[in-house]
Amino acid sequence: MPHDHSHSHAGHDHGAGGHHHGPADLENVGRSFGWGIALNLAFVAAEATGGWWANSSALLSDAGHNLSDVLSLALAWGAMLIGKRPSSARYTYGFKGLSIQAALLNAALLYLALGVILWETIDHLRHPAPVNGQLVMLLAGAGIVVNGFTAWLFSRGQQGDVNVRGAYLHMLTDALVSVGVVVGGALVYFTGWLWLDPAISFVILAIVGVSSWGLLRETVQLSLQAVPTGIDPAAVRQFLLTQPGVTGVHDLHIWPLSTRDTALTAHLVRPSGTDSHFLHDLQHRIQDEFNIGHITVQIEPGACTHESCDAAHP
């Protein structure tokens, strides 16, 4: 049986979740990573120095946590930069898949950081110790500004890229923890109740842990090449079945090439065969309807005999 193949590779990027990203967006995200790394490195140095001066194990521990966040930002940025390298004879899709691996690792690091903070919070609750509350509040307030501003830098790009979303949630987590440190430090300073600081930390950790669960779930799905969030495979199949002359669809596969790019392959049963106009129109409609930029379609002019073939309704 003869087959016709059609391949389409869009000249622009599409988000795995259905969001468009052009070169300007990628450049903005790159600048966000650069600013985020520089600001947080400076803050880590200030926090470590202040923690040593104030005799605050909490600040020293948080400085170590913030340093791990800097490493996470560098990991995500590095994956994005390497992903821009062209494809080769062996790596035919290039290195875009690194963004998925980086997103998965960052999601795991986020929960690891939450676990470390939880352990420290429990220890502080069991063994409360007086510290220089004013200096702690001052540095934690600076942390709100630095981490909040960094999270804002990623707030736009995180909607269409789980790799950027991981960086966004890391920074947002740090900002919220800093809020808890300021509030807890102020309450302890004025009331002397040392247990208030870890109690507030428990609440913040619970909120961040629940809100970040979707990120971990989505990155695991992407690593397993599941259909990206935002694309309904049933809707794609139904769309293909409604195309002119198509009587069946089988071997439909939709998977992420990266956190921004999605690929599709499908076999279409079309007794009348194919033509360049049909394929060209089909490719552009799939890109417009579902933001899938890498498309391979095989046309089968015979009957729908494949065991997984879904026939079009008359």
From TrEMBL:
Supply the Pfam families for this chain.
Cation_efflux, ZT_dimer
The protein's UniProt keywords, in alphabetical order, are: Ion transport, Membrane, Transmembrane, Transmembrane helix, Transport, Zinc, Zinc transport
Where it sits in the cell: the answer is:
Membrane
Q: Where is the Cation efflux protein cytoplasmic domain?
A: 230-301
State where composition is biased (Basic and acidic residues).
1-16
Please list the residue ranges annotated as the Cation efflux protein transmembrane domain.
Answer: 37-221
Read off the Gene3D superfamilies from this record.
Cation efflux protein transmembrane domain
Membrane topology recorded in Swiss-Prot or TrEMBL: Multi-pass membrane protein
Q: Does the keyword Transmembrane apply?
A: yes
- What Gene Ontology cellular component terms go with this record? plasma membrane
Look up the domain of life of the source: Bacteria
Outline the segment boundaries, as ranges, of region: Disordered: 1-23
State the protein's name: Cation transporter
